[in-house]
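Re: your question from the hallway

Yes, I did run it. Sequences:
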Amino acid sequence: MPVLTLDIDRFRKLSGIEISVDELAEKIPWIGVDLEDVGDKYVKIEYNPNRPDLGSPRGIIKAFKGLYGYETGIINYLVKPYNAEITVDSTVKDIRPYIVGGVVKGLDMDEATLVEIINLQEDLHNGLGRKRRRVSIGIHNLDVISFPVKYLGVGGAYRFVPLNMESEMSINEILSKHPTGVEYKDLVEGFKKFPLLVDADGNVLSFPPIINSEYTRVTESTKNLFIDVTATDLDRAIQVLNILMTTLADYQGKLYSLKIIYPDRVMETPDLSPSIISIDKEELISYAKKMLGIKLDMPSIRTALEKARFAVKEEGGKAKIYIPSYRIDILHLIDIVEEIAIGYGFWNIEPSLPHRYSVGQMSNKSKVLECIAELMIGHGMTEVMNFILTSPEEQFDKMNIKIDKYIEVESPKSREHRILRRWILPQLLKCLYISKKEPYPQRLFEIGYVFEDYDIDSKIHLAVVISHSRAKYSEIKSILDNLFESLKVSLSVRAIEHPSFIRGRVGSIFIDNKEAGLIGEIHPAVLENFGLEQPAVGFELNLSRFIG
Amino acid sequence: MSISGISEVEAQILKILSKEKVLDITELAKLLGHNVDYIRYYIELLKNKGLIEHKKEVRTKYYAGGKLKEVGNLPEYYIYKVIDDAGGRVEIAEARKRASKRYNLSSDDITAGIGYLVKNGIIRITGLDKGRILELNRSFPDELRNVINLLMKKDGIYEEDASEYRDIITMLSDRPGFIDTVVEKREWVSITQRGIQLSKKIGEVEEKEYLSDLTPDLIRTGEWRDKVFKEYDVSLPGPPRFGGRRHPMRELLKEIREIFTSMGFVEEDGPLIELAFWNFDALFQPQDHPARDMHDTFYLKMPRYGDIGKDIPVDKVKITHESGWETGSRGWGYKWDINEARKLVLRTHTTSVTVRMVYEYGETPAKIFSIGKVFRNESIDYKHLAELHQVDGIVIDPDTNLKELLGILKTFYEKLGFKKIVFWPSYFPYTEPSVQVSVYVDELGKYLEMAGSGIFRPEVTIPLGVKWPVLAWGIGIERILMLRYGWDDIRTIYTSDIGLLRGFKKCLY
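Structure:
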């Protein structure tokens, strides 16, 4: 989740609220962000991906002021037409078809503001923009641009001076040499034409979604901005533009809209008017009560929603709820109910126990496994827990066996955790190795999930290992015998050969004539592979018969 | 044996010493039937109690050497005798001849003997050159006679008992074969007056025999009645012993099971290898959601796809994702792909089990929990593991609500021993309202995030056939265990070091 550091002085300055770090830290989680860290002069928060509008101190302050009553209700964002155009060429249709944009003038710009805007842009790129694949944003110095701006596709040889460079580079060069180009080149891989934004004088503004031009660079003294948002998805582009434009308005910018002229239609962006849900008042009241368990009347609901920076207009039996254009997370009436709960104050919600009586029950499987574990404890065995993800080296190579059917995962971050275990004994031997310095005898068991061949249904195994200087087959066999005797199931063990065990001291365990496991003395070559110096005996048993 | 503070071995020592008064320690050990090192400990105890005294000494002892034993006396004695036998006066050459022949003395010994006798004025030499004669001057000295008598004794002579003959012994030491010198280290123990008094009391129960073990035979025959059991030092530690133990995580899982069953919840179970459909899609998680990325989720290489099954309302889930269907939602507004949903993953949360239960139970009031392993494609470090334990729970009920959700979670954490529990608004793609549960940890002086919870979105439950509210939560378990044992490295939980497993605190109280 994206992280935002709120400097206390900056917070006070932007909000006009005199507040201490401690008070801010105490109050801020109730707007719905996670408290990450509290310093002497700052509060660090994490905000949730459904609320990218909280990605700047301005966004946080807007929510904070609402919840704590400093400033409630919806903000009416005024947008004037700029009387300028972006024309969209048909060449972008198959590469990055959508563009929206807007103009901001008279920003209260300084270094801190610039940093906050760039951070918000980055968070939008990574979150809603899915690392620029779906949406990317260009922020430009408006004063150097002459309209109309054209959005078109060009060849790889097209040259301009990219951001942070002194001389022209071709698009192909940018993708192979410019650090940002190299980082994002996957996004335009296989493209025959590349998206480009050019102004009326032929100056390149940007090569979305890769990089802006040096020509339109924004600095701490830039007060007027042109924003472009290109995307593979128009709705998403509009969401991003709305969040950015409203935030810039919060930074005292005046907003202007642009005409976007597609080959087949014309639209004007941004449109920051709220969307409206109209609902029967009684229905809203009863739905909120049903979900929250709190009876709120219409004025209380209205107050709560206003604290969440929404607006409510009552018209007869109906309530019209106005949703700010930067709130992209309202999909359903339930989302409105959550806003009511947040505005009401989560701290006011009194926990209560479920009204309905019910009888609890542990699963049969859990009961049986608990019982088997208890039998093992009775034999003085210590329980261990290993990972289901392991390596073929440990599962097979070290056990002197060759098996090539096992379930493997894609792109594991660790080589030691790349296949699902087929059996547990190898891991118990590894435990013996880890515990070599501990007093013997060592007696271990584990009950856990394994996967056989390519079968995606897990099995549960019990594995037991005993190690000390005089560990013998008879000792482990006694435990197996006693287990079956306790469970009142008949057992037969038939001699087999198995490379993990000493020849003539290994058997296959049969239950009802079905093979269910192995028992024997671990082969000295296997002990050596695991770095063990004490003899070990063990068994591994499929417990399916007992847990159904 | 009933004298307090006196062990069996101590009593035996006192008993022996009360008779013998003083004994060499080796002698005492022999009488006790133990080796010396074994009894030292008890001697030290008795000494500290003032019941015996313990002395160590180093003594030099002289014995007759091999040659002396062979010839039976000093050359001086034989030479004197030769001269005496010859009437008190004899030629040197003749005297040497006779001494050699009669007494088997070597030439060197004869020379040394004559030299000593002359030097001490016992005989004297007269005449010149070849015609020199040995003549007795005075009688043979007693001290030489005595030294020989002492040396020839079987037990030899201590240095201190031979102090008056020191010069003679020094002289003899220079002659090979005449004296053997032995350095003796000896330890003596003797009983004190207090020891004697105490040993009398021991004597009172003396007639009974000491027993180390009670045997079935003794019980059967009743012979134990005449016996006294050897006393043990009951304060000594026993040999180390390690009983069998559950894994601490398993104990916590069991405790959590007990808490939920005590609150009326039924345990359910689900697959570890799960369809993306149940892990994500049924939970209204859009297909391009970052959590579905291979960087976070384990997908199977082989087999790659699973079978969702015919009866599952896949189409309703699809339309809900795309446009909201009849749920009253806008949907996510994208094209849903069934192949993405057919992918097999290692479940990333146990919510995959509870959402299956929403479908299986339908609109039947139910309280369900499921506990088990979940997987994340993480690099392993002190904060992260690729495999973790979770417990998810749901309440399906037409009349349940957010307050009940908070009530359940508050009770759960209180039962685990947390006192301050706080509920903050949060976000999960499949719940609304969403609530983060944090608990205050005194040791850290701050709140820690413990669980995510909420009410399943209508987009989750309605396609699965449930219009009722469904409360839902997912609780991480490792963190609870770490707080419990004060571990700050999550890997500690699964080190499988038997030392740790044998040693962790049990029966937390």
